[in-house]
Each structure stands twice: as C-alpha cells, then as structure tokens.
C-alpha cells in the first residue's frame, strides 16, 4: 500500500493533537484515502525535551533537514508568528508539498501569495484551522459558493473575548477579573492584546472575506474595536433590556464594495449568537438560496483545532488543484440595502436637545440610553462628543423596550 508522508512543524498543543490524531485514526485515513498516512518528521524548538514520539520519526530543529527527505507529501504548520512560518511554507510548496496551516495572522497577511504559489506548483492549501477552530466554516463556504451567492458573514471568532464577556455577565465580575480567569484557564495569553483588542478576529474576518467574495476590504477602512470599553455597568444595563454583549466580526458585500467590522454589539434572544457562551465560536452565513445558517462549536484547543487540520489533510490529499480557493463572484448581484436607521446603546452624558436628528427611545440609567439613528447622524454626535461609547443592537425588531406599549420617545 502506498503511503502519504507528512511533516508537522511545531509540537505544541496543536501539533501534538495532530500527531496523536493521525496515530489514533490510522484505519479511518486508510478507508477514506486508500493510503496509509505516516508522520515522518517533526520540527521542534528543543530537541532535548522528552516526547512520546515514535523512534522512526525525524525529530529536528532544522527545517532544511525535513525538506531533504526523499519523499514528503504534506507539511502541516502548527507554529506561530508570520516568520519563519511563511518562508517555511513557501519552501514546502516549492518542493511540491501540499501545505496546511492554523496560523491566522500569517495567512491573513500572506494567504494570497501562498495560494497563488500553490496554484503554480499544482498543490493545495488547507487553512480550515485559521478560522473558528473546530467549526468547518471554510469547507461549508466552499460548498455554498458552488451556486449560492453569499451576501454576509457574521461571527464570534475569538473564544477568549466571548469567555470574558460571558464571565462578566454570569459572575458579575469586572473586565479585569474575567481576563485573569481567562488567563488562568489558558484561554488568554500573558499579553492578551490580540484577543481583547480584536486583532485575532480581524485576521480571521479577512480570510473569510477572501473565500466568500474573492477579495478583502482595504484593511485601513475596517472598523476594529476590542472589548476593553465594556464595563460591569454596561453589562447590567444590557441585562435589563434582555440583551447580551457579543464581540462580532461582520463582512458583507454592498454595491460591489466589501464592508467589514470587528466590534462589540448587542443581541437579543432571537439572535443565534445570544446563547453562544464561554469559549465557543459561532459563524452565521447569509446567502441567497439557503438563507441563513449558523455553525457553532469549540473555537480552540488541542483536538478542535487538530480536527480542522486533519480534515484539511484529507481535503488536500483528495484534491487536485482546487480552482475555487481564490473565488471572485462575477454575477450581476448587489448586496442587501443597508438600513437607513439602526438602534444603538450609548453611554455618556448627552444633551438631547442639541441632536434633533436622533430619536431618544429610553434612558436605562442616568448615563446609558437607547437611541434610533442613522450611522451618519451617530458619527455627527460622536464627532462632537468623542468620549461617548456606542454599541449597535442587532435583531432590533425584538428589542423589548420597542415592543412595550408604554415605550415613548423622550
């Protein structure tokens, strides 16, 4: 029986999960691929560290040793940072290897170049694990994009931020206390900036944009807000309105323009994100035929991420060159028309009489308000009072305050 020979770059949580899964699911690989899958090399930082790895596996700190192997079919990358990862994967493609990565920052910056290089060399790129861990959102989009026209993708793409917001609400904790708990559980790094300031979700959103629309927005135009401005007072005010804060990435195509944002929003219990708690991720896709579908599951960890990479291993081994990896829709189609007005929760002191263009719906506390306003009117308010915090409310038709008979404009 022929053998598919695999190298794993990195043997941390994810790399080890991939190795263990290949060992434990050998029969399943053979049944699906008709070939045996064998790990022949692993790149590590510390060659002296004890690891439970077969003796016939090449263990090395030098990637060039791996490239010199007489047969190498797939390189699975499970390390961090843009470099030397990008260089390693380019070299692997040049050798004629399929590549699989979980590195969302590197792939957001260099994914197009890797995909183009793979096309030139007749190999495939697997990158399911770059977005939403164990949720098969990329494979789902590949299937939807056969005929469906995707108009919008929204997602809770960072489990750390979602965990912090859940803990703040459920345990009545401060942001700082919830962050410390996330770090203690291993959800957040010692430096949590990428997670809590929205960079991690931003990189994932850019990857999804390229899959769904064949292009990305100008990165400088993407509104990116983290969750650090959300206080216990805001969480409590939202609860009074039966709303929950969620950190959501949104990408849509409107009049041939890609619109993207990563920011905290408020959702009611009719929204699929309302019940996505803890370190879970969820992705909602809106397309013209199937309508809205929501995928939910674990966003990180050894086996959820390993699962995505293992499915990619099957994908790249079964695929010849996949021409749909850089899809751009050419159909004459326009996205959804943006609503003229939205509902917002504001925090801060505002003189209502100076803003007649805004409808003031409710005063939740002395400094927290519900308003109805167009985005341009809101920008005008914020231009005059930049210290105000604001959060969009999704699912406004079910907002309790708007459905109360006693609701009045104040």
Automatic annotation (TrEMBL):
Superkingdom of the source species: Bacteria
**Domain Aspartate/homoserine dehydrogenase NAD-binding, chain residue ranges per copy:** 10-127
Q: Which UniProt keywords apply?
A: Amino-acid biosynthesis, Methionine biosynthesis, NADP, Oxidoreductase, Threonine biosynthesis
Domain Homoserine dehydrogenase catalytic residues, every copy: 136-314
Quick check: keyword NADP in the entry? yes
Which chemical reaction does it catalyze? L-homoserine + NADP(+) = L-aspartate 4-semialdehyde + NADPH + H(+)
GO molecular function terms here? homoserine dehydrogenase activity
Q: Where does this protein act, in terms of pathway?
A: Amino-acid biosynthesis; L-threonine biosynthesis; L-threonine from L-aspartate: step 3/5; Amino-acid biosynthesis; L-methionine biosynthesis via de novo pathway; L-homoserine from L-aspartate: step 3/3
Q: Record's SUPFAM superfamilies?
A: Glyceraldehyde-3-phosphate dehydrogenase-like, C-terminal domain, NAD(P)-binding Rossmann-fold domains
What EC number is given for this enzyme? 1.1.1.3
> Record's family?
Belongs to the homoserine dehydrogenase family.
Q: Which NCBIfam families match?
A: PRK06349.1
PANTHER family recorded for this chain?
Answer: HOMOSERINE DEHYDROGENASE
Q: What is this protein called?
A: Homoserine dehydrogenase
């Amino acid at each position: 029986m022929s053998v598919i020979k695999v190298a794993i770059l990195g043997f941390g949580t994810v790399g080890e999960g991939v190795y263990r899964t290949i060992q434990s699911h050998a029969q399943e690989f053979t049944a699906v691929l008709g070939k045996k899958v064998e790990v022949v090399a692993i790149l590590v930082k510390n060659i002296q560290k004890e690891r439970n790895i077969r003796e016939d596996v090449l263990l090395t700190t030098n990637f060039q040793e791996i490239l010199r192997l007489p047969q190498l079919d797939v390189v699975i990358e499970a390390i961090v940072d843009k470099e030397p990862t990008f260089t390693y994967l380019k070299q692997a493609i040049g050798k004629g290897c399929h590549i699989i990565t979980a590195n969302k920052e590197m792939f957001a910056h260099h994914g197009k170049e890797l995909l183009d290089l793979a096309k030139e060399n007749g190999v495939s790129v697997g990158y399911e694990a770059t977005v939403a861990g164990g949720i098969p959102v990329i494979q789902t989009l590949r299937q939807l994009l056969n005929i469906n026209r995707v108009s919008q993708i929204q997602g809770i793409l960072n489990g750390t931020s979602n965990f912090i917001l859940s803990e703040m609400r459920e345990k009545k904790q401060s942001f700082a206390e919830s962050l410390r708990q996330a770090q203690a559980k291993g959800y957040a790094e010692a430096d949590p900036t990428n997670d809590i300031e929205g960079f991690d979700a931003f990189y994932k959103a850019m990857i999804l944009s390229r899959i769904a629309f064949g292009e990305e927005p100008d990165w400088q135009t993407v509104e990116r807000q983290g969750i650090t401005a959300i206080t216990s007072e805001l969480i409590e005010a939202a609860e009074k309105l039966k709303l929950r804060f969620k950190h959501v990435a949104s990408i849509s195509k409107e009049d041939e323009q890609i619109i993207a944002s990563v920011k905290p929003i408020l959702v009611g219990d009719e929204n699929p994100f309302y019940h996505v708690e803890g370190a879970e991720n969820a992705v909602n896709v809106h397309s013209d035929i199937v309508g809205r579908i929501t995928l939910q599951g674990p966003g990180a960890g050894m086996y959820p991420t390993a699962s995505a990479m293992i499915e990619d291993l099957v994908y790249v081994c079964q695929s010849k060159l996949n021409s749909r990896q850089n899809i751009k829709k050419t159909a004459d189609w326009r996205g959804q028309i943006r609503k003229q007005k939205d509902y917002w929760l504001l925090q801060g002191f505002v003189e209502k009489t100076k803003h007649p263009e805004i409808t003031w719906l409710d005063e939740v506390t002395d400094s927290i308000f519900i308003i109805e306003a167009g985005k341009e009117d809101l920008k005008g308010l914020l231009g005059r009072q930049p210290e105000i915090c604001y959060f969009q409310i999704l699912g406004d038709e079910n907002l309790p305050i708007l459905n109360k008979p006693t609701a009045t404009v104040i």
